Amino acid sequence: MDYIIHLLILICIYLILAQSFNLIFGLGGLFNLAHVAVYAIGAYTTAILATEYNFGFYACLIFSALLAGLLALMIGEISLRLSHDYFAIGSLAFSAVVSALLINWKSLTRGVLGIPGIPRPELFNLDFNNIRNFLWLAALVALFSQAALYVIFRSSYARSLRAQAEFELAALALNRDTRLIKVFSFFIASCFAGVAGSLFAYYLNYIDPSSFSLGEMVSILTIVVVGRPGSFAGVMISTLILTAVLPEGLRFMKIDASILGPMRQMLHAVILFIVVYWNRARLFPVERVV
Amino acid sequence: MLLAENLEFSINGLQILNRVTFKVRSGETVGIIGPNGSGKTTLFNCISGFNIPNAGKIVFKGQDITEMPAFKRAALGLGRVFQNLGVFREMTVLENIVVAIEGRQPLAGTFWPWSRRNRENQKQALSYLKEVGLAGRAGDKASSLSGGQMRLLEIIRTLAFGADLFLLDEPTAGVSPKMKDDVAHLIIRLQRMQKTVLVIEHDINFIQKFCDRIMVLDVGRVVLDDTPENIRNNELLHEIYFGAGKEQENSSR
């Protein structure tokens, strides 16, 4: 039973992560490979504030969201000056810089040793060391995040984001400040990624740089691509399938545990390749010109 | 309404616009014709703000917009219809119009998806679609429309946006004769609404139906600017479009 609860908590975390990436990539058309970096910033912010400064849950959550958003503003300010393919490379470079900082800024992050002993939140007189109680908290945060993201996905802002993604010049001709629209999507999505990171840190009680690798970015990307970029419901379903159903399906194949872990990552990569290949015209359309 | 003064634009050493000067009065409909590569679309791009001219000035509604960002020019009332169909194909037909209507409204009023403003915008969008016979396709993706229907959608979208100056770049390119009539009727409607229209076209027969004047561009210069009747019979126009070869061919017969 505890294992099922563990999966449900992971689904809550990945729902926030994937849906926020869906905002930038699915609606905004921005192939942002720095999403895992802002997820990491959220996690480390909570880890440091909770362990070093005894900040409470709400403060950690807010600071994690804001710092992740601030980093996104910095990334966006520079990367969004680059055209599509170069933007992806630029965001990947930022991701690599953040990864290097997490590994090498040992006085702050303890490097590859990671930060242990992250205490569970203290709220409503509930013991969140009990995994069932933590599931309620994770579900509440995930529900709020999904509700907020759903409103954003249905809003006039989302229409502007989709318009500029499809034909930027036409969006400009309809009084859309496309640069501001993109930067704002970065900020909002990264705030949510920071929240996911915070939840992740609280749940595992320990984080280290290996949890925020390129492999993790591939997993997030796979979830969104399989669920159909831009589709809110689709990404919810693909999160469920790829986080819980598919990996658990592999367990029944009686594969050795030492192979099962790496196999999941390889499976994500293979699924991603197949789906991208079949949908390449839709996923990466030719840029429209006047 | 619009003044272009000594506009110059070059790219990679190639002079595309060469001291282009013209004026368009409010409510006027001006056709722009010229051979391929004469700089017509580049001229529109400079007016729209997608290209910044190397020299010269553009004044719109009394404001110097030469270096103004494109979206700010749109906010002033400058509308653009693109040569390569500027509809948002992945959006529905209705969403294309709603996006335009929202373009001149503050975000706060339209952000909440279920607001009264949004409902009103949708109703208004439907009424625009009715005018061009696309109300029945409101829920369809714009990509499912024919080329002619997309063209009508784009023009009515620019009207829904509230543009005062319409830059129509080859609005009948690849469109059936029936659709050409529909486009012509829409342009005449814009004229009745006192909108100012600049239209790039190759079909003189088409634009002479509704243009007050026609400008001829050749090698980045305005070489003729006159009424449709005078332009049609002008020898220089024949030379620009058909070249000196025609004269030689005639003389050899």
Portion in helices of chain A: over 70%
Taking pLDDT < 50 over at least 5 consecutive residues as the criterion, the unreliable ranges of chain B are 245-253
SSE order of chain A:
HHHHHEEHHHHHHHH
Biggest interface and residues each: A-B, 23 and 40 residues
Shape of chain B: globular
Largest sheet of chain A: 2 strands, antiparallel
pLDDT averaged residue by residue of chain B: 89
- Strand order, sheet with most strands of chain B: 6-7-8-3-9-10
Strand content of chain A: under 5%
How far from one another are the termini of chain B? 49 Å
Helical fraction of chain B equals 40-55%
- Please report the total strand number of chain B as a whole number: 10
Computed over alpha carbons, the radius of gyration of chain B is 19 Å
Give the tally of structural domains of chain A. 1
Strand content of chain B: 15-25%
Low-confidence blocks of residues of chain A: none
Largest sheet of chain B: 6 strands, mixed
List keywords for this structure.
heterodimer, A: 290 residues, mainly alpha, 2 strands, 76% helix, B: 253 residues, alpha/beta, four-stranded antiparallel β-sheet, 11 helices, globular
Topology:
The complex is a heterodimer of chains A (290) and B (253).
Chain A: H1 2-27, H2 35-52, H3 57-79, H4 84-104, H5 106-109, E1 122-123, E2 126-127, H6 131-154, H7 156-166, H8 168-172, H9 178-204, H10 214-227, H11 232-251, H12 257-278, H13 280-283
Antiparallel strand pairs in A: 1-2
Chain B: E1 2-11, E2 14-24, E3 29-33, H1 40-48, E4 55-60, E5 63-64, H2 70-76, E6 78-81, H3 93-102, H4 107-110, H5 116-131, H6 147-161, E7 165-169, H7 177-192, E8 196-200, H8 204-207, E9 213-218, E10 221-226, H9 228-232, H10 235-242, H11 245-252
Parallel strand pairs in B: 3-8, 3-9, 6-7, 7-8
Antiparallel strand pairs in B: 1-2, 1-4, 4-5, 9-10
Helix pairs in contact in B: 3-5, 3-6, 5-6, 6-7
